[in-house]
């Protein structure tokens, strides 16, 4: 029983971690007033960069940082389109979602002899308790990325709500004109937030291909970015809310895994729906109205009245 | 306004450059073909599904089969990669226009496209991997594999290898095709159990996804933690997670479709092979020699040496590989018939 419980917690944490990184990125971007639906594309780029750099450098950490950088670079495209050029942020995001997998496959084929999946990295991101062999705790021996994700969530919460800069970001997302009047550089703040959002999404992608599995496959990132996006809304655009939403989603998946396997006569196709059903139920019953930052999705025109 | 123009232009440029990459690849392969062949009278071409030509799976295997055919017979061979499902028909038409005599669609995803192209080009012969039509047109050949046979063999290996008396099967999305893998495997395990005179438990779980590696890993972690020590997966991308779980738990895992030992040399016990290339080569050769192959579905299995397990068996215990070969012979000469469905499986274990 205790063993099952630990397994349940372990699976929950494993499953939710890539989502947490990406959802935190979504929160930061949205809080500054830029909708980022390109998270999925940025995660894919991060996933391929992480696995590739991790393979060629032999170090998972180098790969992890490279993945963050790559996500950031792609995010700059989004920032340029949606902040400088004031393009429709949804369209720019969709473009990134289309470009991401294309570029990822292209890069992978270029560097891995035409193959659509990379070779496994020699060293993965380590586990929290190292390579411990105690059977009792094996299921709780999660990847270090799980801890990093938690620390980041706490840090971003602190930053957004307890520091001056956090207040600036929120002001820019709620009422950019007022923030501008107070002397804040709206464009600069938004650029930085979108960049950070891309870095986090990239890290999320890499936490998939450097920790959960040790290689990039064309299906490594398939939908996590969109689930993260849902977690942002579900968590009412707050870091702690988004973190909890990702955990909930992970827990629901863990439930389908622990319930499945023929011990109960529930068809697995029904079980597979469970995470989504639970999410909708909780959304309806407990979460209540969630409202986006007021200026989210609107480009800021300096002289518009 | 001008800025919006820039954005539109940028986006368009990026999208275009992607399509251009796809187009460029095809041009090079065509160019290669023109320099290498040209005189041969018979031309075989294939379209890949969206996995691409180097997918380390059946597209790659099929192309290797065609390359082998070219080396052996001098036939002209060619391929076009499909970037998305909507390319299938276009690519088939393009290859048809280029004068191919036999066209392969690789993967059941191409099934409708092959049917459509075959309807509008009755003078070209078509063949498809992994699909059987209910009514096969006279210029189409379906090619299927008896996946239950290698699955039975790896099931036997699993049954002989397990120390805990518990093995697992992780499936992608449940379907008739994956049933062949599941029941073939289960029957193999039970066959070994009967031979050893002990009970072996099989836990089966479907991820309901062929792409969710994290779920595959979670399911496998649960099975290993429940005491399974050998797991067989037929779950595509989800299976990457299964293999990773085996590495972390340091238990056995059995690969599928191709030799997956390179993914985890210490933990991959064996793999259930499906040699698509061999079947492609054989069918193409028959068509080349003027044999009528259309209007039917051909199945390939151990008899045709188109499925099996890899020769490397360093991870198996003494004698297991040799005994597995004996089981293989029994399937070949019809003594054993691995089941493909639940009903057949129940009848099999009742024996």
UniProtKB/TrEMBL annotation, chain A:
One of its GO terms (cellular component) is plasma membrane. It holds the Pfam family BPD_transp_2. One of its GO terms (molecular function) is transmembrane transporter activity. It comes from the Bacteria. InterPro entries: ABC_transp_permease. It is a multi-pass membrane protein. Keywords: Cell membrane, Membrane, Transmembrane, Transmembrane helix. The keyword Membrane applies. Its main location: membrane. The chain crosses the membrane at residues 6-25, 37-56, 62-81, 93-112, 140-160, 191-213, 270-288. It is found in: Cell membrane. This is Sugar ABC transporter permease.
């Amino acid at each position: 029983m205790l063993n099952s419980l630990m397994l349940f917690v372990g699976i929950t944490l494993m499953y939710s971690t890539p989502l947490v990184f990406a959802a935190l990125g979504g929160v930061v971007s949205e809080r500054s007033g830029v909708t980022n639906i390109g998270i999925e594309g940025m995660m894919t780029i991060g996933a391929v960069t992480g696995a590739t750099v991790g393979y060629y450098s032999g170090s998972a950490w180098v790969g992890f940082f490279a993945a963050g950088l790559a996500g950031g670079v792609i995010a700059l495209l989004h920032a340029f389109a949606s902040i400088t050029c004031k393009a429709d942020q949804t369209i720019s995001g969709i473009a990134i979602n289309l470009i991401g997998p294309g570029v990822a496959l292209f890069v992978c084929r270029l560097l891995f002899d035409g193959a659509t999946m990379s070779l496994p990295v020699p060293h993965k991101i380590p586990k929290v308790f190292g390579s411990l062999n105690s059977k009792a705790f094996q299921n709780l021996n999660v990847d270090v990325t799980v801890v990093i994700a938690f620390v980041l969530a706490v840090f971003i919460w602190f930053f957004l709500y307890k520091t001056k800069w956090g207040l600036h970001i929120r002001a820019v997302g709620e009422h950019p004109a007022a923030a501008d009047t107070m002397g804040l550089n709206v464009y600069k703040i938004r650029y930085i937030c979108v960049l950070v959002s891309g870095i986090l999404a990239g890290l999320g992608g890499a936490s998939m291909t450097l920790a959960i599995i040790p290689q990039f496959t064309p299906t490594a990132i398939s939908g996590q970015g969109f689930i993260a996006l849902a977690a942002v809304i579900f968590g009412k655009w707050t870091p702690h809310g988004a973190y909890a939403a990702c955990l909930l989603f992970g827990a629901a998946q863990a439930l389908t895994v622990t319930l499945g396997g023929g011990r109960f006569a529930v068809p697995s196709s029904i079980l597979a729906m469970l995470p989504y059903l639970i999410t909708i139920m909780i959304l309806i019953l407990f979460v209540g109205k969630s409202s986006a930052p007021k200026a989210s999705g609107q480009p800021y025109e300096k002289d518009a009245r | 306004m001008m800025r919006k123009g820039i954005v539109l232009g940028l986006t368009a440029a990026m999208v275009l450059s992607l399509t251009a990459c796809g187009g460029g690849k095809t041009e090079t392969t065509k160019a290669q073909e023109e320099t290498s062949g040209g005189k041969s009278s018979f031309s075989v071409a294939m379209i890949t599904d969206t996995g691409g030509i180097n997918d380390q799976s059946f597209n790659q295997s099929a192309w290797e089969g065609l390359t082998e055919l070219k080396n052996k017979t001098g036939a002209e061979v060619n391929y076009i990669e499909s970037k998305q499902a909507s390319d299938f028909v276009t690519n088939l038409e393009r290859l048809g226009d280029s004068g191919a005599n036999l066209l392969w669609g690789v993967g059941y995803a191409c099934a409708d496209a092959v049917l459509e192209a075959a309807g509008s080009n009755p003078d070209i012969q078509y063949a498809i991997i992994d699909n059987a039509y209910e009514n096969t047109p006279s210029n189409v050949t379906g090619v299927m594999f008896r996946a239950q046979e290698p699955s039975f063999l790896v099931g036997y290996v699993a049954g002989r290898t397990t120390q805990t008396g518990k093995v697992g099967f992780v499936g992608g999305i449940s379907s008739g095709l994956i049933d062949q893998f599941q029941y073939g495997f289960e029957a193999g395990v039970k066959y070994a159990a009967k031979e050893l005179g002990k009970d072996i438990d099989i836990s089966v779980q479907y991820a309901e996804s062929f792409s969710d590696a994290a779920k595959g890993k979670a399911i496998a972690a649960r099975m290993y933690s429940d005491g399974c020590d050998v797991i067989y997966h037929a779950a595509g991308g989800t299976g990457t997670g299964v293999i990773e779980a085996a590495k972390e738990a340091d238990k056995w895992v059995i690969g599928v479709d191709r030799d997956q030992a390179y993914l985890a040399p210490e933990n991959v016990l064996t793999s259930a092979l499906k040699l698509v290339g061999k079947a492609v080569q054989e069918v193409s050769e028959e068509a080349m020699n003027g044999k009528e192959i259309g209007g039917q579905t051909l199945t390939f299995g151990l008899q045709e040496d188109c499925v099996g397990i890899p020769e490397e068996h360093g991870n198996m215990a003494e004698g297991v590989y040799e005994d597995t070969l004996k089981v293989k012979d029994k399937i070949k000469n019809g003594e054993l018939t691995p089941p493909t469905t639940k009903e057949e499986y129940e009848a099999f274990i009742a024996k």
